[in-house]
Amino acid sequence: MADKVMVFNIIKSLKNHVKLIGTIALLSILITWALLTFLLVPNYEATSQIFIEQPSGNAPAASQVENLADPEVMDAYSAMIKSRDVLSAAISTTGSPLSPAELYEKVTVSNVASSQVLNITVEGKDRKMAGEIANSLAESVVAESWEWLKIDNLSIIAKASVEEVPSVMEENGLYVLAIGGIFGIIVGVLLALIAELFNMLFRTGVLERRRKQSKLQTVFK
Questions:
Q1: Are residues 93 and 57 in the same domain?
Q2: Rg value, the chain, Cα
Q3: 111 lies in a domain?
């Protein structure tokens, strides 16, 4: 019987805090949505690849590969690809909102080990835009050719993907928001029970003080 009374009191206390529980659940859903939409946006990397063919008469193939692996040579390629003019052209072509200085920090130039392949990698919150910029930079390299580096031929052997990737909200929006809502309800119920417990303790304390005062008054009479 006592258990039933306790359960009834708990249910009654929860009914008294329905607005609190509903408000916290709604707030949890909104926070979940905001986090996944604005803050927890994944950072994508898009990479295009260029094959560099150096003059065959100057050095054997092994020497050409070693030349590309030379840090000074890589620094030269990186400096040219990340030059302000090339970056500005890529921004203009793709319509990127980034400035050349901002894009500079997001571009990485490297070589594939033991090969004559150059990687141009662009980081970004928008995978499609990152891919378009990486491809634009590769096309600029091929178009310029940079003959003074004694390169016979430059060709793009792999383009970065420009397919749009749906966000977590777009793929599992209802599922994620439902989890946020359930979490909010659990937190709301816990807070409601804590509030009811403090309220009960407060009422018990008040009644105890009144009882003591009543006993004192009876004694003095």
A1: yes
A2: 33
A3: yes
Instruction: Please state, in angstroms and as integers, the Cα–Cα distance from residue 155 to each residue in 14, 77, 123, 135, 159, following that order.
Output: 69, 15, 22, 12, 11
- pLDDT tens string 60-117: 444 444 456 567 777 888 888 888 888 998 999 999 899 999 999 999 998 887 778 8
Nearest-CA neighbor of 94 among 131, 138, 144, 44? Answer: 131
Q: Long-range contacts made by residues 89-95, C-beta under 8 angstroms, separation at least 24?
A: 89/136, 89/140, 90/133, 90/136, 90/137, 90/140, 91/133, 93/132, 93/136, 94/129, 94/132, 94/133, 94/136
**By residue range, what is the domain housing residue 19?**
2-39+173-220
Is the four-CA dihedral 80, 83, 85, 87 of positive or negative sign? Answer: positive
Choose among 55, 54, 83: nearest CA to 69. 54
Place of tokens 């792999």: 158
